[in-house]
Amino acid sequence: MIPRYQKVVFVVLLVVSIAMAVILVRLRERAHDRLLKGEDLAPTVAPAVAPEVQATLMVANDTDGTLLSEAHSLPLPKDAEARARALLEKLLEIYAGAGAMHAVPGTPRAVLQVFLLPEPGNAEGKGRTGGQAGGQLAVVNLAGAFADGHPAGILTESLTVESICGTLHANLPQVAEVRFLVDGQARATLAGHADLTRTYLTEEIADAATGLPAAP
What we know:
Elements: H1 4-37, E1 52-61, E2 66-75, H2 80-96, E3 111-118, E4 136-142, H3 144-149, H4 154-171, E5 175-182, E6 200-201, H5 202-208
Parallel strand pairs: 4-5
Antiparallel strand pairs: 1-2, 3-4, 5-6
């Protein structure tokens, strides 16, 4: 004979099972109704869009080997590192366009990251360049596909590197130095000529550039 407590446990479990089955059926029916009605469960609030701001791109010109200052209205994020990457992506997008004065094949995500670090020596108040305290070192991590597809030649490679440095300095004046990585690793040259092992001083490039706007 089955003990009374086992009968009670069995009845309770049976009731619970039936209740769960009913709940699951109702949830399934509600989900099906929503699907039939075309109910949009996505968030109704539109994602935030970065406001457009005036930016300065230092665009290379192969004709005379100079950098030309071009003003562009771009949607740029507030974060300095994300802003730097967006600026450089736009610069390289110009180079990949038809009729570019400095033609370089385009590559998706040509700039993987830009890191902004305290300039070496700032612990003593000044960096190696002798600039004001608070100067930064920008580390630009380029995609290997971009470097591998870049046209070879001392002039064309140097102009790409210098235009990157000049664009960073024009929009982020605190960037005093720039170093380069390719796919996160040190690389001797961009495409066989431009030295990527050195540290580039942005003020020197800015002083030598043509059409550079006055410093703020």
